Amino acid sequence: MAAKNFLCCHFLLLVWRNICCACRKQILMMKQVMLTAIIAIGTVTSFAQDAEVKRLKDESNKTVKKEPEQKDGWTKGGVFNLNLSQGASRNWAAGAEKFSFSVNALANTFAYYKKRRNAWDNSLNVQYGIVNATSIGTRKNDDRIDLLSRYGYQLGDTAKSRWYLSGLVNLRTQMTTGYNYTVEPKEKNSNFFAPAYLLVSPGIMYKPNATFDIFLSPVTSRWVIVNEANKDIRRLFNFTDTTKMAINEIGAFLTANLKKDLAKNINLTSRLDLFSNYKNNPQNIDVFWTNTLGFKVNKYIGVSYNFDLIYDHDVKNVKTGGLLGTQLKSLLGIGFTATF
Q: Which InterPro entries match (predicted)?
């Protein structure tokens, strides 16, 4: 009996040892698998962290895109827009013009020259438009000639300085006769060089890049010219002596110009002029703000939007004889566009 019990115990011990040995192997294998998994996870995480660190570093190293600097020599270009529209109706119950037709043309050109410290900027803006309708006949709805020439001599270090000792000449007028249609018969109220604004201004210019500049002059001479014998027209532009063809104003002048591509096929040209006449109510600042926004559809088709704002305290209302107030004009057109 004792021998039988001894053999049973010995058998159970051997079984236990085999079980423990198998368990140890399984545990050792599990440890190896876990270690391998941890190493793999750590490697993947390390690569992911390295990629993220690299991305963050690249983001931090990014700089704001600088506007282009004006190159030495001539920079020339421009844009021409021709917009047409036509409409017709017959027996239209809701009411409409029997026939209407309009055409608007715009040419905006520039020629910039730079050599070392010298900068010479020239721009010419010409706009003209007419509309014809059965009810009103033919009238113009746009008319402008605007020529600006400005010279600047760079101050300080040519590599860093953005300041220029500068002077400019600006001429603004129209091409054809304008009429007051609120009275019968219509009355002529403007013509070529009636009025015209001639401005001569020495000052200082800040030009950080090729797309933006601002010019300031504390002493500017401006002539308002009315080349027309009609005394009533001269009175509309505050001529106290209607025998004179021009009046002179002395004041402060500021002009800011922006010419920028907003997107691949969208560009904006904007100009703001401010003038304060020291001789007559200097607190009343004359404002001339013109904007052209162009959307290019393809090489020859484009959309253009023009918005102008003018305020001149000296311009009278034709109908009432009082202050004319703020003048607003906008044109939206789709048509032929050529860039050169």
A: DUF3078
CA distance 277 to 94: 51
Partners of residue 181 on adjacent β-strands: none
Asked if 129 and 140 count as a contact pair (C-beta separation under 8 A), the reply is: yes
CA distance 303 to 334: 5
* Spatial separation of the C-alpha atoms in residues 251 and 273, rounded to whole Å: 13
Phi-psi region of 119 (alpha: psi -120 to 50; beta: other; left: phi over 0): beta
Q: What is the DSSP letter of 93?
A: T
The pLDDT of residue 158 is above 80: no
Q: Residue 203 contacts by C-beta under 8 Å, 6 or more apart in sequence? A: 166, 167, 168, 215, 216, 217, 218, 220, 253
> What are the tens digits of pLDDT across the range 208-264?
888 899 999 999 999 999 988 888 888 888 888 888 999 999 999 999 999 899 988
**CB neighbours (10 Å) of residue 239?**
19
Looking at residue 19, its amino acid is I
C-alpha to C-alpha distance for 314 and 12, rounded to whole angstroms: 120
Mean pLDDT for the stretch of residues 67-96: 83
**What was the pLDDT predicted at 55?**
52
Determine the pLDDT at residue 52. 47
Helix, strand, coil fractions of the chain, as percent rounded to 5: 20, 55, 30
Selection from 305, 291, 315, 307 nearest residue 226 by Cα: 315
> Would you say residue 65 has pLDDT above 60?
no
Among 80, 85, 81, 88, which residue's Cα sits nearest to residue 102?
Answer: 85
